[in-house]
Amino acid sequence: MQEENTPTPLSPDEKKAIVDEQFWFTATTVGLNSLVISSSDKIHLNLFMVLIFGLLSLFAFILVLNRAAKYASYNGYKQLEGYPGCSYDGGFSKVLLMRMKLTWWEIKGAIRYLPFAIVEFSGCLFYLSLIVCSYIGLFYL
Q: What string of DSSP letters covers the chain?
């Protein structure tokens, strides 16, 4: 019997789903950034747009890293310190607080995986590069 915080191995279908998610997160983000870049004669970039597209790009960056960490079962993934788990028992505010803790934990886990993604030179690094480059492209309108 496995311990509660020990992840079960991913099935081939789960691995394919992770790869597909990474692709679509990247394609959507790069597509949105490219749309703005290609419409530069009609759109004038302002601070609000920079922040919105920055947040979207950061969100995609974190999601791609998160999926890569899960795919690699990085450090046993759930064995990273402080995995909060989640239960839907209790009131709305208790569940909301648990979900916020879980989300924050997922973000920290994804960021901790970044050095591994860089040295592996995997598809994850390629996707991250596309996201970052497309966002930087917004500043050269």
A: ---TTSPPPPPHHHHHHHHHHHHHHHHHHHHHHHHHHHTTTT----HHHHHHHHHHHHHHHHHHHHHHHHHHTGGGGGGSTT-------S-HHHHHHHHHHHHHHHHHHHHHHHHHHHHHT-HHHHHHHHHHHHHHHGGG-
Among 23, 22, 24, 48, CA closest to 36:
48
Tokens representing residue 127 in the block: 């996707």
Q: Give the pLDDT of the chain (141 residues) as one tens digit per residue.
A: 445 555 567 788 888 998 899 999 999 999 999 988 888 777 777 788 889 999 999 999 999 998 888 887 754 444 445 555 555 566 777 778 877 888 888 888 888 889 988 998 888 999 999 999 999 988 876
88: Cα separation from own chain's centroid: 24
Stated pTM of the model: 0.76
Q: Which two tokens stand for residue 102?
A: 């879980």
Is 109 within 8 Å of 77 (Cβ atoms)?
yes
